[in-house]
# Entry
Amino acid sequence: MATRELSLGTHEITLALDEHLPLGTSSTNVTVEVITASDAVTILVGLVQDSTLSARSQQPLLASLAAAAAAFDRGNVNAGDNQLQALQNKLRAQVMPFNATLAGELIRATQEIIDGTAGRVTL
# Structure
C-alpha cells in the first residue's frame, strides 16, 4: 500500500490487485480532483443558492460562507473553520426545524471541508 499527499489539480490513480494465478492481475483507474478549501466553499455556495430556501433564509448562510472563503483565501484556516462551524450552527437552528434533509446534507458537506483542512498551517 502506498500513501501520498496529492497537490492541487486532477490526478489519475491506478489501483492494482494481484490475485495470484490463475486469475492474474486486475487494475482500474480512478481520476480525482484536489481543490482548495475556498473552492469547496464555492461549491457549497452553489448548493445553498440552488436549494429551496428563500433568499431571506439563504442570506445568513451565504454570509458565513463568504467569510469562510475569504479566510481560506487569506490562508487563515482556523478562521475559515470557525466560520464553517458557525454555518453549521445556523443550519441546525434555522434550517433543520423545517428541512432536516437539506440541513443534514449541508452540515455533512461543511464538515467534510473542516475535516479536509485538519492539520493545515494557519498563516
User: Anything to note?
Assistant: The mean pLDDT is 88. Residues 14 and 29 are 4 Å apart (CA to CA). The first strand starts at residue 9 and ends at 18. The beta strands are 9-18, 25-34.
